[in-house]
């Protein structure tokens, strides 16, 4: 990934209104051009999906928020309460589907396979089932209503490949793809995202107590610095980011096919 060359704009307090309006217009244009009835958005109670929901609200498109807890995990982490706070504030239509039965049904329980795997692979193989099941729910729900699935992944996550292939990395359009994490916070403040969402630690909700920065081993501010200036300010972190880019390159590349 080439730094600086892929970041053609930067959102700050002075221009946030301009960019929020441009992003909202872009969202509405994507929906109208495809003759869709609206959008479906997976709501985790986090800041990225909350910002995208508010951009959809600004765009005046019909967006349905879908919360997909694994059992009681959203209640345990207060994500359900945060999501409902946003929903109540903006009066979003919403739906809740418990993915636990589907996830449990798809989980491999063969002890021989499990014993032959490393601990980290066992944890991630289980954790990644959840976003892939959520993607399936979102796409069925979208097709039932002739809608698009809107993505919420930001540029910092993409820089280090921090998303699940065929899971939260699957969507029809994404307004945050070129937006750093600090820009997400600038948008959140302008758009009126509840402070309870703005000030909590970012988490993908992969397991109880999980936080993005702890799992990544770096802060979003460091990743943003790498994107904007070419360095996080710490050579060790820079090397970790480059290593993660190499390891996740397959998530962005075209699927290899034999051509004879």
Automatic annotation (TrEMBL):
Recorded GO cellular component terms are: cytoplasm
Which GO biological process annotations does it have? NAD+ biosynthetic process
Q: Does the keyword Ligase apply?
A: yes
InterPro entries from the UniProt entry: NAD/GMP_synthase, NAD_synthase, Rossmann-like_a/b/a_fold
Q: Which N-terminal residues, if any, form the signal peptide? A: none
Report keywords, A-Z: ATP-binding, Ligase, NAD, Nucleotide-binding
Q: Which NCBIfam families match?
A: nadE (TIGR00552)
Protein name, UniProt field:
NH(3)-dependent NAD(+) synthetase
Species: Sphingobacterium detergens
